[in-house]
Amino acid sequence: MNLMQIPRIEKLTLNIGAGKDQTRLEKGIQVIKMLTGIEPIKTVTVQRIPTWGLRPGLPIGCKLTLRKSKAVEILKRLLKAKENVLQVGHFDNAGSISFGIKEYIDIPGATYDPKIGVLGLQVCVTLEKPGFRIKKRKLEVKKIPKRHMISKEEAMNFMQKEFGVKIGEQA
Description:
Layout (H helix, E strand, L loop, with lengths): L7 E10 L4 H15 L4 E4 L14 E8 L1 H14 L3 E3 L8 E6 L19 E8 L23 H12 L2 E3 L3
């Protein structure tokens, strides 16, 4: 097989949305820090949405991006929380995987903290192939050719082979 056609993990993003509730935001920051040992950043609103009480610059969530071996290590733990089963709907046509974990205490190694309570998080895995740098480089930025894109089937095969994930049908 061509080495340039083998997918790999580009990044793993953990996200907790809190809305206007600042105490939920602080709890979300504690959860991500407890799981990874790294302080997440706050995400802020860009638009004004008066019906939701949002204005530009208001923090509404937190996120953390992990790469390389740290991403693989955390992903293995997160998949155990889902019992190594992902649905077909968790995969998109661009080679990304996204799933939610309802309660952080399902993750192995996470201990329940009564100050935090029960809180869930969103997990996004972005896959890439060698050569994807052409879309991010400074000089001569180009599009990824269609034949080099990661398909839904390739992403599913990668997760099955690398992490032993079972793919279930939509419920």
